[in-house]
Each structure stands twice: as C-alpha cells, then as structure tokens.
Amino acid sequence: MLYSQGFKCAEILSKKIVPLFSLCKEQASVQNHYDFGLRALKNCLIRAGNIKREVKMGVVSEESRVVSEKLGSDIIELKILYSSMPKMVGSDVNLLEKLLNNLFPGIEYSVNQLDLLMKCIKTVSKKLYLIGPSGCGKSTCWQVLLKALEEYDKKESVSYVIDPKSVSKEELYGTLDQTTREWTDGLFTGILRRKLLIILEVK
C-alpha cells in the first residue's frame, strides 16, 4: 500500500504505522465514533499519498503547504494528526501525541499551522459534535438550544434524528440507477431536499 502511494521507505514506515493504529485501538478509551481499523489505515495512507503528490507537483493545499518538502514519515504523521486528532476526546489526544513522539521521534509538529484553518472553520462551520457517554445530557443540550432558538426567532423548529450506523450509505445519501440514470434520495438527502423546497416556497 505504501509503495503504491509513492513511499520508498515503505517497510520502515509500515513498522511504525501498523503498531500506532493497533496501540490506539488498545489503549484509547472506547468511543463509538473511533475507527482504528484497516479502513481508517487505508484512508490515511491514500490521503498521505495524495499530499506527497501535491507537494511534488507544486499543488498548494492546506495539508501540502504544511508539509512542504518534508519526508515520508512527516507526511504520514501529519495525516494521522489531521484525520485522527479532531475525533479524539480529552486524554486520548495526549495518548496520540505520546505514541507519535515514540514512533516518529525527532519530528516536530506545530499546531500554529492550523490557526488559519481553525479561523475559517469557526467562520463557516454549521455543525457541532456532542460527545459523551449515555445519560450525560447530550440530547438535552441540543434540545434546549433548539428551544432557545425558537424563542429567539419566534419560529417553530423541526429536528431530525438519524442513526447513520443503522442504515447503509445508499439508504443515507441516496442512489443513482446506472441503467435509468434516475436518482433516489436517501434519508439525509431527502430531508435536505424537503427543507430546500420549503425555503424556496417561503421566498
């Protein structure tokens, strides 16, 4: 996999990456949204390969700008940080940093590189993650917020609760019939379409 993504020192990197994901899976707290399996590993390596090619071709993206002319291990570590750290809770972030320092010694990573990205996210982001164990008040939190927004806007709001793990990707996002080229909305896209139609009717 590493060779196919253009990493010449694939054997050395594999001896670091595979143990890293295994240790994260063993030592991190149990969270439903965590994924340290083969799928996550594959996605990480594919994106790391993309970054490597972007750097080589001079294409500037947020991630390729950060790595600049760095080596393979730097790119791998950067991609792990970009993909894994935002998902991790509390003490697990420290665990990831320690594991990275042990397996990728000598590589410095400055969070200052993310300042511009964080500023942009805060400006345009329309989503929020509530993470915690059962019964800690996650549902109550967003329900209170929704009620407060109703009072502020003087409009009735409607909430939609979807468990993405209970349905397939096709059922969630929709499907395109390869023969008839007819699109069928999924749960999520169907809700978006209905809400958009309501907004257009109001205008």
TrEMBL record:
Task: Report the residue ranges that make up the Dynein heavy chain hydrolytic ATP-binding dynein motor region domain in this protein.
Answer: 1-129
GO term, biological process aspect, one: microtubule-based movement
InterPro entries in the record: AAA_6, DHC, Dynein_AAA1S, P-loop_NTPase
Which chain regions cross the lipid bilayer? none
Annotated GO molecular function terms are: ATP binding; dynein intermediate chain binding; dynein light intermediate chain binding; minus-end-directed microtubule motor activity
Task: List, alphabetically, the GO terms of the cellular component aspect.
Answer: cell cortex; cytoplasmic dynein complex; cytoplasmic microtubule
Concerning PANTHER family, the annotation shows:
CYTOPLASMIC DYNEIN 1 HEAVY CHAIN 1 (PTHR10676:SF314), DYNEIN HEAVY CHAIN FAMILY PROTEIN (PTHR10676)
Please give the name of this protein: Dynein heavy chain domain-containing protein
